């Protein structure tokens, strides 16, 4: 994966009804570690990282790059949204396209926060890089992620076997040009 390319970054924080999307900051470090070390979060993502290792390796201020949003509820980080360009050409349908990823703390699941935040990130994306589709890959067994993909308007392109499980590749069409 590589970053999005020429977009104005960071944008002003994006406020939704209940959430704020913004770039990562030093105060998010502990939550990034919680996210990456969580077995629940990584059930369908190849397993969690070791917390001790993360404590040693994670920079004081989490990495910032165009397309990496922290999602905040009442002033505290609850998740991350990633928009990155897929460089892996093993899936021709995804190669070169922008890929949506999302990780939320288990305590925040089941409230519609991921759907609300992803919709806002995709709106931002439509303005930043108009006319580009977005793809999303998830294990088909990841029911929460599959439901979210459907709510966000992704439809199936293909299913394939990788990393020891069936994967679902979906695509959201490019937004119609403004006007
Ligand atoms: C995938 C993931 C983000 C989904 O989170 P989620 O909280 O289930 O997703 P949503 O924001 O869509 O919320 C879902 C539920 O909230 C409920 N909900 C409660 N209040 C709500 C509200 N005000 N508005 C909308 N939904 C609400 C809905 O019933 C909805 O359930 P449904 O999908 O059965 O209809 C989360 O499970 C996660 O972080 N998983 C680990 C990481 C991962 O696997 N990422 C995918 C690979 S990139």
From TrEMBL:
PROSITE patterns: GNAT
SUPFAM superfamilies: Acyl-CoA N-acyltransferases (Nat) (SSF55729)
Domain named N-acetyltransferase: residues: 19-175
Descriptive protein name: GNAT family N-acetyltransferase
Organism the protein comes from: Luteipulveratus flavus
């Amino acid at each position: 994966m590589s970053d999005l390319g020429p977009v104005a970054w960071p944008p002003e924080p994006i406020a939704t009804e209940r959430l704020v999307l913004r770039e990562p900051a030093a105060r998010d470090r502990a939550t990034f570690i919680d996210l990456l070390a969580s077995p629940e979060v990584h059930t369908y993502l190849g397993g969690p990282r070791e917390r001790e290792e993360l404590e040693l390796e994670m920079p004081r201020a989490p990495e910032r790059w165009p397309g990496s949003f922290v999602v905040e509820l009442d002033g505290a980080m609850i998740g991350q949204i990633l928009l990155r360009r897929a460089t892996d050409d093993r899936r021709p349908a995804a190669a070169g396209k922008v890929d949506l990823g999302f990780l939320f703390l288990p305590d925040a699941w089941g409230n519609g926060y991921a759907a609300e935040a992803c919709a806002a990130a995709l709106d931002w994306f439509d303005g930043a890089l108009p006319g580009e589709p977005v793809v999303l890959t998830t294990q088909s067994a990841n029911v929460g992620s599959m439901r979210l993909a459907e709510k966000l308007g992704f439809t199936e392109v293909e299913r394939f076997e990788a990393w020891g499980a069936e994967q679902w590749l979906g695509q959201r069409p490019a937004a119609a040009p403004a006007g």
